[in-house]
Amino acid sequence: MEWPACLNEFEKLLFRLDSPRVSIDNAVCSKTTLVKVDSARKHGILLEAVQVITDLNLLIKKAYISSDGRWFMDVFHVTDLNGNKMKDENVITYMEQSLGSIHFMRSPSYEGVTALELTGTDRVGLLSEVFAVLADLNCNVVDAKVWTHNGRIASLIYVKDCDSGCQIEDSQRIMRIESKLRPVLKGDNDIRSAKTSVSMAVTHTERRLHQMMFDDRDYERTPSPCSLKDTPEVSVQNWIERGYSVVNVQCKDRPKLLFDVVCTLTDMEYVVFHATVDTQGSRAYLEFYIKHSDGTPISSDAERQRVVQCLQAAIQRRATQGVRLELYTQDRPSLLADVNRTFRENGLNVARAEISTSGDMALNIFYVTDAEGYTPDSTTIDAVREKIGCDTLKVKELPLIYHQEPERNESGFGVGGAMLLSLGSLVRKNLYNLGLIKSYS
């Protein structure tokens, strides 16, 4: 492998000693690919491993996580979005290399662009106004991700200068962009909490969106009626004898669920020592044994309630809402402004968006709802598609995972079983699945 120029020979030796050992096996399980990661324990190492897997759009169907002293062991059972094993050797090789080098600080995902961070009050037509302002300021949107939750919006938008195709670095121009966007995000009622800024930090985009919404305290705001029916079940209790706080999560399964939960726990400065993840049909069951970074468990009812609220919010931010529309067309100035204006004129709100460009082509994914957050009727969707172009804007079916029905839990573990087993029994089961003990009975 290629070493960073800043490392001397002693540092390279330390890196070899501490580098995670990675094993990817398709023979052990009939339905999933087994991914094992053994690593020196450090804060955030679990999040980095999960991030590598989920960035490849793989599903984590089961996981067993445990730490022993200074060492950390993860076992993941993964499939693609359609429930199949990993078969592509290029993907397997890439995963091995990425998991084996997660101790290294990786290069920025986005280079040569200016990153705009925006938070504010969500409303129908907001994105239309944001993209119209950027188009007027001669900014070309290269990539963007937009999340909404509890009436709030957070977005990371990567832009270049339309004329030069280069990063926008002029401080006066950046200040002008911020000053034009801030009143749009504030609207008529949000006089304090709207924020615009230019980010120079190297941060994983989706982790940064979680951080932005956490800082915006979206978890404290009143949820919309349509989101209450799918509220995740989260409980927190202390295992006093062992000094752990035990977090149980039950919710609908979906891609990147484990990433969202671990990301939130990590950014709240909790350390995961043991964990189990199990999915049964369309449901997911997660259990974490955590402590503060100073080794103490959760100490108060107020803190316990805050953990529950924050985890529920983290899961719901990425929950699928409305209809998924994919726009694939040649990129051009004002494309996003025009498309989102059509959404607004037809009463559609963008609940989530993923904007990307490759060469002169744009691939934009929008999850749209009506003004109240419910699934829009087909007549409205047809009208929007006719206006934008039925060949370029298409309704896309969600991956198989969203259509699964609950399965019978023959193992007795994971669904209700995870709640019925004693805490000590669960830890022993973790260690058994990791191969650290011969029997957990």
From TrEMBL:
The protein's matches in InterPro entries, at most eight in alphabetical order, are given as: ACR1-12 (IPR040217), ACT-like_dom_sf (IPR045865), ACT_dom (IPR002912)
Q: Tell me any Pfam family this protein matches.
A: ACT
Transferase among the record's keywords?
no
- Coiled coil start-end: none
Q: Does Disulfide bond appear among the keywords?
A: no
Quote the protein name from its UniProt record: ACT domain-containing protein ACR
Query: What task does this protein carry out?
Result: Binds amino acids.
**GO MF term list:** amino acid binding
Domain spans labelled ACT: 115-192, 324-403
For this UniProt record, the keywords arranged alphabetically read as follows: Repeat
Provide the species name.
Saponaria officinalis (Common soapwort)
